[in-house]
Design a protein that fits this description.
The protein is mainly alpha-helical and 91 residues long. It has a domain of 57 residues. Helices cover 58% and strands 0% of the residues. The chain contains four helices and no strands. The longest helix is centred in the last third of the chain and has 16 residues. This is Glutathione S-transferase T3.
Length: 91
Amino acid sequence: MTTEKTRWTHDDDRLLCSAWLNVGTDPVIGVDQVSKAVDKFVGCFDHILNRRESRLNDEDRKMRALELYHQNEESNFKYLHYWEVLKNEDK
C-alpha cells in the first residue's frame, strides 16, 4: 500500500512559518523545532556576514551563503522561502 504525499506550495509554507512565529515566539508555548537544513543555512549566511565584505549587498550575501551551503552539504538548500520569512525573527 502506497500513500501519495501532498506537495505544499510556497504560499502554504509561508503560512506555516507565520503560524510557527505565532506559536514559537510565545514564551509559554514555545517551539524549538527548526529544520536542520535551515540551521545549517543560517550558519553559512552568518559565516558570509562575518566576513564583513563591504562591497556585498544582502542579495550577494544570500547567494554566497547558498553556494557555501551547496559546497558543505553537496545539495541545494531547498528551504530558502522558509528562511526569507524567518530570517528577522528571534529563534
